[in-house]
Each structure stands twice: as C-alpha cells, then as structure tokens.
Amino acid sequence: MPPAFNPIYQTVETEGVKLHVWHQGSGPLLILIAPGANSGTCFDPAMPELSEHFTTVTYDRRGYSNSSLESPMMLNPAQSARDVVAIIKALGFQKASVFGTSAGGIIALQLGVSYPEYIEHLIAHEAPTTALLPDTTTWLDFCAATYAKFKTHGGEAAIRFFGSKMVGMDPTTVIAETTLDNAPFFFEYEYTIFTIYTPNMAKLRDNAVSMAVIAGEESKEAYYARTTLVQAEMLGCPRFVWPGAHTFYKLFPSEFVVALLDTMRQLGAKDI
After folding, report:
1. Mean of the per-residue pLDDT values of the chain
2. Is the pLDDT of residue 173 over 90?
C-alpha cells in the first residue's frame, strides 16, 4: 500500500509571486507541472505512489489558485520556467526530473531550452506547440474564437468551447470547480501566448537533454497529440504512447504512475 497523501506545504517567493508549493517523499526531485486553468492539485491522487520513488513536488502555477498575483499580467513560458528553477533551488536540489502536461508541457520544454543544467529527465505530455503543425492557422483561428467566446459569454462557456476539440474525453463531464475558478485567468493571461509561442526546438535538441514526448492513445489525431510527432522528429527524442487521453494523469493516477516510471526507466533513471 502506498503512503497516505500527507505533503509538506511551503511558499516560494520569486519575481513578484508567492508560489504555493507542496511535496512528499524522499530521493531525487520530481516536479509535476499542471496544465492551464488548473491547480497542482490535479496531481494529488498520484503523489503518494510517486513519493515512494521521489521527492515529488507540485505547485499552483503563477496566477492560479493559491499562487494568485496582486496585479495579474500576461504569462510567458520563460518566466514560468524560471519559477520552476526557483522551486528547485528553494528545496535545496541541484537538478530535477520534470513532467509537464499540456501548457505545463510547454513550460517543461522551455526549461530544457533555458535551463538544461537543472534537468535530469524531461517528459512533455501533449504539449500543444501548434505553430509546428501544418494547419497552424486553424488553431490560431480557434484561439481567437475561444477568446471571443470568453469575452462575450464568460469562463465556463469558453471552457466548454475549448473542450469541444478534445479527443477521447466525454464532453458532458462536469467541469471541476478548480478549472472554472481558474478559467478567467487562463483565457485572459495565458491561452493566447501559449498558443502562439513555441520553445526553440533547435536549441533544445543541441542541449542534449534526456527527454521524451508523450501522446495519449485515446487522443488519436487531436492537435495536441499531433504536435508530439513533430516534436520528436525535430528533437530526435523518443515519443511514447501512453494509455488514456489528455487528462490521463488525473483520471487514472495509478496507471499514470506506472507509465511515468516506465518512461523514466527508458530514459535511464535508476533505482526507481
């Protein structure tokens, strides 16, 4: 039986925000980066099992939930990557393995670009680098339409419109209260930037970071799964297909732990 969920909470101050951070376990550092419009609590169900192998850390990203900003401003992946470096340093580590999903995957990729010296292994799950796709203008148009929906009908309507392009997920699923609470910040301050921005893939390849990109089996031809094909080709890194769809880590936490540990072993992680 895995241990109970019993993390240690702390605050990490950096660049005008007090990041709400929590961790459990011992051993090498593993940081889990949440997607947009979410709290790090999306990883709580998986944390006890992961804590048997790692000092497992997650956090509310800048502007979200308990890491709110007094003066909200547009997010950028470079600053978001620096937030992760601040957490690594605050916890007294030199390096971390990093898992990021969706927009969190873009932050993970940016870490590999800007701060490879802090990365042990990097896993980017369905990071939506839509500028790399041949139909990139389709997703620019969709971004504009989603933002217009947010401005005219509010966060919940925009989340449902945004979710209409999700593959392998039940569109009638009740939207989590955390997501609804974070939706206005996501659409106003993150979604557009994270749609049009792509980390420097040539530099990431040249940095020779130990990494893999992941697509969900049930995501099929979703745009955020197709991006992983281009990423793997450009980076020369392995691409793995995990079970489930875009929120696999949250809906099936035990299976997520198995897949994550297996991928890290294939990247060369030892004693896990």
Report:
1. 96
2. no
